[in-house]
Amino acid sequence: MLGRIVASAAILFASFSSFAGDGHDHSEAPITDMSKAYKVIAQPQAVPANGKVHVEELFWYGCGHCFSLEEHVESWSSKLPADVEFSRVPAMFGKSWVIHAQMYYMTEVLGITEQTHGDTFKAIHLKGERLQRKSEQQKFFADYGVSEEDFNKAYNSFTVKSRMKQADKRIRAYQVSGVPAIVVNGKYLVDAGSAGGQGNIFKVVDYLIEQERK
Hints:
By secondary structure, this protein is of the alpha+beta class. It contains ten helices and five strands; from the N terminus they run H-H-E-E-H-E-H-H-H-H-H-E-E-H-H. The chain has helices at residues 2-12, 16-19, 64-77, 95-110, 113-125, 134-142, 148-155, 158-174, 192-195, 201-213, and strands at 39-40, 53-59, 84-90, 181-184, 188-190. Strand 2, helix 3 (64-77) and strand 3 (84-90) form a beta-alpha-beta unit. Mean pLDDT is 90; it is low at 4-26.
């Protein structure tokens, strides 16, 4: 299954360097027209039918812009109202992306995502750790109390592979060309380019949440 994801991703996205960022100026600019600060997704995707507004972050651990956005994500998600649900979806636009997506879903299966998510970004972007090899990931996970046995179970887990397949399908349905990006209720996509800078992204997200409440 991993091979099929890599193959399909390679056709759509030729290289790491082309899609790590979105090519936009990420400095913050005033939002003069909110209706132009987001994109309407051509093929809206279903979200959980639980009465909440669902917000998804599309990301890759190796993406520098995703790393810089993380402080905004953490600040915003720490104050979620009761009627908003937040989740993350790792993009798989190449072999390195697939490896990191597998690592992300392993943390979900192991129940350590909140402890490891920010630290994974820091390990890659501040400490220079690639976290591409199984041995590198196992060493990283060990710092969070994950045994070799539990690591191997998660590494080969059907649940991890299934979630990766679902995430890859969802990302491709959104037809995004780069990360980071935020999707609101499966309908609207917000990124630094549309919002006029990373600092504006969650201003637009909050506006869209309010529209979805109506």
